[in-house]
Write a structure and sequence with these properties.
Length: 360
């Protein structure tokens, strides 16, 4: 039977969104279903609706293209996150208006591609009666119920490349180089890229750091004749007993913007060790550009699975990668629980085994 399904992308963008859109459209077309893109996040469902038919023949190049052809938003009426990651519910009027918008289009289901915030909204919309399935997106990799979100691998690739580049200049100038990476309250990007990029010090939110520990590592390297040091710092890293460092110009009713810990760490290292220290904030470079091979594959499998979940009527579920398999799990199992780097996990243990300083 012919069906019409909608696709919406929400929250911060990342590499691979277009690859998921492509996979959903292709898999839907194989079943004879039509797909409609909702422009600018869930807001596009509200009057005056902002839509884009997703023609099977207009998918060329999407697998590689960064960003999202549907646009996205992490602010406004559909923003579910405030402060340091607290989730807030949508008012009933907005849920009703969104349901009306969905019904008016004659949609059979909605595919919501997003992170914790967008999928929390997806869960509320599902509870309100919209048949919805989720696809887990975020460079932060902090969603529960999946061992990997798409976008993460591409961000790690970008951060690893930056660390490689910093190595050569750090060595030439005998400097300490601090790279601040994204990830909010989880240290996944920092620990993966730090290990892959050979960082000497990796600071993650899960392990509060002390300057004594960082400077001891620098001194150890100096004694061993290594006159440069590379520090990978997650934006959510903080000193023991200290607060998260937030960027200037915070806006009310929005999620806090982290940023600035790298500069603080660099200044303190220089003060304590006397070694010339520089900081690089990698910022949104981690969210731009083409997805990596792994992300392309993950996005394609995720998109196909999302269509399968719809075909099986498994609404309120999210596609999840469990390692060997891609399965459907309840969206409610994935949202509202930050998935952080486990301290007894392989990455932390291996980093310690290699003598990488984790700041404690
Ligand atoms: O959640 C993804 C993310 O890139 C975080 O790693 C980062 O803290 C935040 O979004 C940046 O948000 P914005 O694009 O609003 O500055």
């Amino acid at each position: 039977m012919s069906k019409k399904i909608g696709i919406v992308t929400g929250g911060g963008d990342c590499p691979g969104l277009n690859a998921v859109i492509r996979a959903v459209v292709k898999a839907a077309a194989r079943r004879g279903w039509e797909t409609i893109g909702i422009i600018g996040g869930y807001e596009g469902l509200l009057p005056p609706q902002n839509l884009r038919p997703l023609d099977y023949h207009a998918l060329d190049g999407l697998l590689l293209r960064g960003g999202t052809i549907l646009g996205t938003a992490n602010r406004g009426r559909f923003s579910a996150k405030v402060g340091h990651g607290e989730t807030r519910g949508l008012p009933d009027e907005l849920l009703a208006e969104t349901k009306q918008g969905f019904d008016s289009l004659g949609l059979h289901a909605l595919v919501s591609i997003g992170g914790d915030g967008s999928l929390s909204i997806a869960q509320q919309l599902y509870e309100y009666g919209i048949p919805i399935v989720g696809v887990p997106k975020t460079i932060d990799n902090d969603l529960a119920a999946t061992i990997m979100t798409f976008g993460f691998d591409s961000a790690v690739a970008c951060a690893t490349d930056a660390l490689d580049r910093l190595h050569t200049t750090a060595e030439s100038h005998q400097r300490v180089m601090v790279l601040e990476v994204m990830g909010r309250y989880a240290g996944w990007i920092a620990i993966y890229s730090g290990v892959a990029g050979g960082a000497d010090v990796i600071l993650i939110p899960e392990i509060p750091f002390t300057y004594e520990s960082i400077c001891a590592k620098i001194a150890e390297r100096e004694q061993a004749g290594k006159h440069f040091t590379i520090v990978a710092a997650a934006e959510g890293a903080r000193p023991a007993g200290g607060e998260f460092v937030t960027a200037a110009g915070q806006q009310q009713n929005r999620e806090a913007r982290l940023g600035g810990v790298g500069a603080q760490v660099a200044a303190e290292i220089e003060k304590r060790t006397g070694k010339e220290t520089r900081v690089v904030v990698l910022g949104h470079l981690q969210r731009g550009g083409s997805p990596t091979n792994l992300d392309r594959a993950l996005c394609t499998v995720f998109g196909a699975k999302a269509v399968e979940l719809i075909a099986e009527g498994r609404f309120g579920q999210m596609v999840a990668y469990t390692g060997p398999q891609v399965i459907g799990v309840k969206i409610s199992e994935a949202v509202g629980k930050l998935r952080t780097v486990p301290l007894d996990g392989g990455f932390v243990q291996s980093a310690r085994a290699l003598g990488i300083c984790l700041g404690d």
